[in-house]
Amino acid sequence: MIALTSDLAESGKTDQFEEAGDFLQRLSHALKVPRSRVLVVPGNHDLDRDSCELYFSDCDSANRDPAAPYYPKYVNYERFFRRFYQSERYSFSEEAYWSLYPIDSLNLVVAGFNSTVAESHREGRFGYIGERQLDWFENELARYANAGWFRLGLVHHNAHFTSSSTEPSANDPSTQPDVLRDYGVFEDRLQASLNMLLHGHTHLRGIRWMTNRVPILSTGAASVEAVSRPPEIPNQYQVIRVTRDDVTLYARQYVPHLDRWVGDTSVTRDGTAWQLQAQVAFQRVEATFGRRPERSD
Ligand SMILES: [Fe+2]
Questions:
Q1: For 212, which DSSP code?
Q2: Which residues line ion ligand 1, judged by CB < 5 Å?
Q3: Is residue 258 part of a domain?
Q4: Ligand 1 centre and the CA of 148: distance in Å?
Q5: pLDDT digit string, tens, across residues 143-178
């Protein structure tokens, strides 16, 4: 499976999505992973802020308030989505501006959260999912937990509260544009139904945890130009292997002057390894991994 925690585009424009679609098609072909297993979520660069501004002026003329998620900003993302999957099975629409990807052959379901709900063309950008979407996923994922399917979450923005900065305000999520502002509610509502969470946006070192039980892994973008990313963050991707008892990530980074991909040791604190492993007692995943053998002692 290929999970993209985005951004896919630079400023949500048609030609950028066409390029991203071509790339994903080639990747899917080269890795022999069908498109139905190439999974996406929207990121902040996937929004067409010009269409959003137009929507705000239309609302203004009609004397009504613009309502989140300001859906016209997804016009090009939605077009990309429909074209890429060409299937009724996966959806992203004005009624449900998020996606659920059930993969029957693996007994695995992927929750594609939309963390760009509150963003518009205006200042004051931050990640936000919102009650309506959380209600929907809480309900839906509970069904898959009952069936014993592995439940993987994908979200774009940084899914945590803290920052590496030592400024006094650093732990206040409302001051950070990169984090999911409603992460606390997200954690409360979904910790019991998610098995693992992947996010994009900013690369953060190591494996972090939601309530000590649900591993959270993050990676930066594989294709952003050097000028558009912090100097310490290379172009990167991860290979993630999940078994019934553990998760292992292998991090890869691109070295421009060598024109090749190598191990990315920035995932470990001491910079000595490009892979990390953690033991995890995944809950309610019998249909995916089989029942745990009875202990004989
Ligand atoms: Fe981003």
A1: T
A2: 7, 43-44, 201
A3: yes
A4: 32
A5: 999 999 999 999 999 998 654 444 445 556 556 778
